[in-house]
Amino acid sequence: MKAFYQDFKLGIIGGGQLGRMLLQACSNFNVTPCVLDPSEDGPCSVLASEYTKGSLLDFEAVYSFGKQLDMLTIEIENVNVEALFQLEREGVAVYPQPRVIQIIQDKRVQKQFYIDNEIPTADFVLVENRSDIEAQVGFFPAYNKLGKGGYDGGGVRKLESKHDIPKAFDDRGLLEEVINFQSEISVIAARNVKGEISVFPVVECVFHPTLNLVDYLVSPSSLPTEIQQTAKELAEKTIERLDMVGILAVEMFVTRDGEVLVNEIAPRPHNSGHHTINANDTSQYEQHLRAIIGLPLGSTAITKPSVMVNLLGEEGYTGPAVYEGLEKLLAIQGSNIFLYGKPITKPHRKMGHVTVLGDDLDDLKRKVQLVKEAIKVKA
Predict the structure, then answer these.
(1) Architecture of domain 123-177
(2) Residue 356 confidence (pLDDT)
(3) Is 185 helix (H, G, I), strand (E, B) or coil?
(4) Are residues 246 and 13 in contact, defined by beta-carbon separation less than 8 angstroms?
(5) Which residues of the chain have pLDDT under 70?
């Protein structure tokens, strides 16, 4: 394989912030990154060696993009998987493999995968439409999740009682048991083409109270060692049973009784791994490249405790992005900022993140609020 040479072309399907950070890792490996994205000015547009505008869901756009490349990977799983299957049949290396993406694209299939492989998860019921949901009132309270298409919490609605049925999705999906959890955690696992597996330490995720997305995360976790070990073993088991090559983010619940349940998985670099750029020996982005190219996986050891805070577009602002308070933010000891290069801000849109490093977790948690007060994304 032509790795480490300018004529080795890696295609990245999706040109958002995850792709942008993957591009930065590509430069260290002298890999030529080519990006396909539906927007003309996405976060990758100014950094990619080649940038192609095209729909990620269109067979011809994905196929034409991929057939001229040495290898393909993704930064979002909402892609035309049939084109990836065709490219794979024609000899293009595609990681994660199309069959893995196909499983994860549909939460219904994803949940059945957990059952088939004895991976603990919350109880669920499959539904075809809102009428099906009406017949499952005895399962309430529950989360109604779309089978396909939900992203960043957009495909999830909580149904407390029959009075909430009008807001349920009238589409194929599932009802999932509401878990009484003490923590939401994430473990990122990597598996290379040789079958070697490595997992990053457990991180604790604190979700926004209304937006159903991560507000900030804390690394390392302060959960008991045995719970962390269980979580790491579950992440390793999941990527192994998928027989997947690349990076897999495994989001989990820790119940009040100390049980660990897998919630959802993502076959790509993930928001819960941004901190690894600054706080671990190897970043999740470099680890992904190592895995798909077939190199030894890097050390996942924590170099410094950290918190990672998502920067969201402020409520009430839509338009050209303006970041207010950069000087105040960067005066916070240990802070590192990543701006995603999105030209337009919208309410609650992910516009960047801040990773703060330090030696004391309690002090780091206090700095989360300082970060939020220091910087605002407006128009």
Answers:
(1) 2-Layer Sandwich (3.30)
(2) 98
(3) strand
(4) no
(5) 1-6, 151-153
- How do strand 142-146 and strand 181-191 relate by DSSP bridges? unpaired
Residues of the chain with CATH 3.30.470.20: 181-378
Is the backbone of residue 104 left (phi > 0), alpha (psi -120 to 50) or beta?
alpha
Structure tokens at 106: 């549909």
Identify the residue whose tokens are 């330490």.
Answer: 201
Q: What stretch(es) of the chain map to CATH 3.40.50.20?
A: 9-94
Burial 212-233 (b: 16+ CB within 10 A, else e): bbbebbbbebebeeebbebbbe
Cβ atoms of 198 and 216 closer than 8 Å: no
The whole model's pTM is what?
Answer: 0.95
Residue with tokens 């109270």: 209
User: Which overall architecture, per CATH, does domain 181-378 show?
Assistant: 2-Layer Sandwich (3.30)
Helices (H), the chain: 17-28, 59-66, 81-89, 98-105, 107-116, 130-134, 225-242, 276-279, 284-293, 326-330, 361-374
Cis upstream peptide for 98 (omega within 30°):
no
CB 282 within 8 A of CB 300: yes
* 108: Cβ contacts below 8 Å, ≥ 6 apart: 126, 147, 172, 173, 174
Asked whether 277 and 354 are in contact (CB, 8 A), the reply is: no
Q: What is the SS3 assignment for 230?
A: helix
> Rounded to 5 degrees, what angle do the CA atoms 290, 244, 195 make?
60
How far is the C-alpha of 187 from the C-alpha of 235, rounded, in Å? 6
Cβ 166 vs Cβ 239: under 8 Å:
no
> What residue ranges of the chain are covered by domains with CATH 3.30.1490.20?
123-177
Task: Report whether 307 contacts 217 (CB < 8 A).
Answer: yes
Tokens matching residue 254: 């820790």
- Whole-number pLDDT of residue 6: 67
Q: Name the residue with tokens 């009075």.
A: 163
Question: 9-94 in CATH: which number?
Answer: 3.40.50.20
